Amino acid sequence: MNNNIAGRLMVALDYPSAEEARLLIDRLQGIPCYMKVGMQLFYTAGPDFVRELKHKGYSVFLDLKMHDIPNTVKGGANSITRLGVDMFNVHAAGGVQMMKAAREGVREALAQDASLTSPLIIAVTQLTSTDKQTLNEEIGIPGTVEEAVVHYARRTFEAGLDGVVASPLEVQAIKDACGTSFKTVTPGIRPQGSAQGDQSRTLTPGEAIRRGTDFIVVGRPITANADPRRAAEQIIEEMTL
Ligand SMILES: O=c1ccn([C@@H]2O[C@H](COP(=O)(O)O)[C@@H](O)[C@H]2O)c(=O)[nH]1
């Protein structure tokens, strides 16, 4: 297995309990992927589960998408940094001051405890479930989804964060606007033949990697597969080609 490529796969542990998440982790043992903990699992299994993943040697993306007043986000970022995660996120729609506050919360935690390492902070531009109609008519932002994504990516860059969450369709436009070292983390990954579900802006794993994304996020195409290990291995194989 190509470990460098496998490290760019983030598996979304969207489960209602730590026990169910552990069953998947056991089946994926030896695959050096990132583990993504989102709201569903964190709100039930909490910080202890994140520490357990770190203890097992995984890189962890804590996907809680903070969106609040700057002072609250700063406090949240401080607490998250203390958990030792490798990446966490906020919503870019919270604004530049809010994103800077997240950076400040990390800085504060690192100053308080020198044994901590600095996590990557990224911001959600537009959810990959959002299509143009939803963007224009419900969210109230005119123009194309790509324009909105690039607008939020620029604000994220301005705030000094490390990258954004977007769909793989927008990777090139983000890199053009913010530079190649600005990270893109892309959900909305659907291997050929897998169910679209609630995702609107999707690409296959191979196409996402060819477009230059740094990380792909995959949930149901692995977790809902009867053989999740084989599904993950096939995705990694496709990423390598
Ligand atoms: O814009 C976004 C931001 C986050 N996500 C998260 O990624 C996974 C995708 O899961 P699938 O089952 O592969 O659809 C999930 O945890 C989302 O919360 C996203 O999809 N889009």
TrEMBL record:
It comes from the Bacteria. InterPro entries: Aldolase_TIM, OMPdecase, OMPdecase_AS, OMPdecase_bac, OMPdeCOase_dom, RibuloseP-bd_barrel. Pathway: Pyrimidine metabolism; UMP biosynthesis via de novo pathway; UMP from orotate: step 2/2. PROSITE patterns: OMPDECASE. Catalyzes the decarboxylation of orotidine 5'-monophosphate (OMP) to uridine 5'-monophosphate (UMP). Homodimer. Belongs to the OMP decarboxylase family. Type 1 subfamily. This is Orotidine 5'-phosphate decarboxylase. The gene is pyrF.
